[in-house]
Structure formats: C-alpha cells, structure tokens
Amino acid sequence: LYTPQRLQMTQATLYGAASMARANIGPSAKIFHQSAAATIANLTGFCGAVTASSFSSVSSASSSSAPAQNQCSDVFSNGLQSHGANGKVDIKYNASLRNPSSTILNAKEVLINPYSTQPSCGVQPCSASGMASTKLQSLPFQATTSSVTMNVFWMGNAHTGGDNNVNYGKIAVASSGTLEFQAKSEPYKIRELTLAYNAIVNLPAGDYWIETLTMESDSHIRVIGPGTARIFIKNSFSLPWLASINKNTADASKAIIYGYNNVNLLSGSKVYGLVYSQAQARLEFNTEVIGAIAA
Question: Among 122, 147, 178, 254, which residue's CB has the most CB atoms within a 10 Å radius?
Fold first, then answer.
C-alpha cells in the first residue's frame, strides 16, 4: 500500500511492508514484514523511464515472476519506511513491526510511545536512518471514453472480454453475482466497476485501469491463474467491512493495487498484495494486509 501522505492504523494488523511520507501506527497495531512478495510480483514499468510499451502486452509479462524484472522492489525493503523528505513514523502504544529486515527504518524521524510495554521492532526499539526511502514511478492513468455497459444480475454468472472488447463505461455485479474477466494481451479500461454485497469478480493476470471502483460489504476480487493482476484506481477507493482482494490465493505477489487518490481499508477488510497510493492511505480496526504497503 503506497501513499505519499499519511497512513493511519488503529489496532490493525498488517502482514507485509509499509512506506509513506508520514506514518501513524495506532495502539496495538502490528506490521508483519513479508519481503518475498515485492521480489516475486511483476513490477515491470513501475521504475525508471515509463514508455508506451511498459504496459502493453502485460498479461504475458505478468505471467513471469523473474526477480530480474523487479528493479524497484527496494521500495518495500523493510516492513515500515517513509519516503517523505521530512517523513515521520509515529509508533503508538504497543504498536510493533514484526520480522523487520532492520530495526533502523528509512525515515527522517521515528517516534515511539514511551509507555509501551513491548518493543517496537521485533525484540528491539525502532530507530530512524535519517534518510527517506525509495519511491515508485508516477504513472499516467489510462482512461477510456467507452459507454458500453454490462450487468450481472442477482446470483448470476457471466464472463467479459469474450467479444474482444476491453473498454467499458460501466460494469455492475449484483448481490451474490459472479463475473470473470477473460485473459487479454491488452489492458482492460473501465470507467466504473461496482460490486454489490457478496459479489465476486475474478481477474486473471493483466492490467485493469478503473476510474471508480465501488465495493460493498463482503464483496471480493479474486485473482485466478498464474501471474499478477495489476489494478489501477483513479478515484478514492474504500474496501469495506469483510471485503477482500486476492484472499483466495493468499499469495501477495499475485495482486498490485495502484491508487491515484485516497485508499481506505475499513474494519475487517483484507488484502493480499502490494498496494500503492499517490494520496492518503488509512487502515482501520482489524484490517489485514498480507504482502506490502508503501504510502
């Protein structure tokens, strides 16, 4: 989960890594560093010069997990870091980073609650390196002007992409409905994707550019097949109570969420993947991220 502004956690649990301009890790919050996801996931095009070819034919690129392709996995070199020039990590009462690669965090300043009864970094207190961590590349959003609509009705099952169309104005999946995208060499571009209560969307490896993603309680985005599904979200996004992304595989390398605006993970939600936001990120009570967060 990446945002250049602020991350807030209150009694939440994070499995992965965090990097942000400023971090507020709330009381009893826990971050479990999991470094392998950033090494295995397809991060092609996220670092260095961005070209038109960086995101063409992504399905084939996403099916490869060669670590040599990942030139920017050091963004998540530890479980918690700050990339802001004056970035601060504020670790509240009994909040902790577990399995850190180092107790020295890449941040300008680290503040620790003096009344905590447990160490903030594994078995030792965290401290600051005085230097900001690495950032990811800022990518231009790929929009569509399509007005094509698709509706999956209550308890219905449907597939999309079979007509070779990869541009949609609106896709709506009703309660208990299931929609499966077909694998394509070209990216999907969607103006609005909505999942109602208990709805399911299955994504194979590839790129999905979504202007507005709306998910209701207990709805789920699943990743299917080999490779990495990369989801780009233009507008603010909230993952609601009991909703999940990539929970079915429990493999954080299979999903990347790149947010251009605020990313909010609400109570009881769960993400297995790498989540990156250009704006503010917030984790609420009992939220879990298994993989890595950069903010």
Answer: 254
